[in-house]
Amino acid sequence: MTVVRALMDQLPGYDLVYFGDTARMPYGTKSSDTVIECALENTQFLLGLGAKLVVMACNTVSSVATDAVSAKFDVPLFEVISPAVAMAVKASRNQQIGVIGTRATIGSGIYEKKIKELNSSANVYSIPCPLLVSLVEEGWRKKPETAMIVKKYLHPLKVRQIDTLILGCTHYPLLKETIHRKIGKRVTIIDSSIGVASRVKAFLDNHSDLDAELGKNGKSRIFVSDVTEQFQRTAQMTLKQRVSLERVRQ
Question: Which of 144, 158, 170, 183 is most exposed, with minimal Cβ within 10 Å?
Fold first, then answer.
């Protein structure tokens, strides 16, 4: 939903179709094989609805399933990791970069690999934060317990004196205020949702033929594999508008 919000902000008026696999999430605790299987099914569903361009709005999927999805489907595909990495390397003053994400994302080592490809002298410190997705999903964004957990997770990164922090999960921007407060205001926060939206916009600016094929009626359809009250609230809070969820079974 944070990526949808960023796309709406940077590409106002474009038609969007979203699928949230709410019945099987969180993906961060799943095996790579399961994540890849889900990613292929979900992409097929979106293409079946007429999607001309696909954004994998999940760090876990981006970290383990990008190659599998791009190999199977001939469609412009955008993942959320590369844009965030480019933003972080550019923003970092001392190339002391922290990354927080799910266990699957951090375990993949994809952020370290991509950062080193851009700047081999950068120091990268990665911390898995497995509880944060559940806290966001439960609506505990403002709870003092959440602030305590965030502080605990970020402590090793504060000790390393990082100057840039990548939010390596698209749930984490919903905790951006708390994260920034606990890591320190001098640390630059990198929001991958903003990065990927900017990359999609730049791509369309340079591919007018594809851009001409896209609907621009300001219509959005939000599909989920399970309708829950909490996701409804989170979606409406993130998009700042009323949201109608359409359930599909994967």
Answer: 144
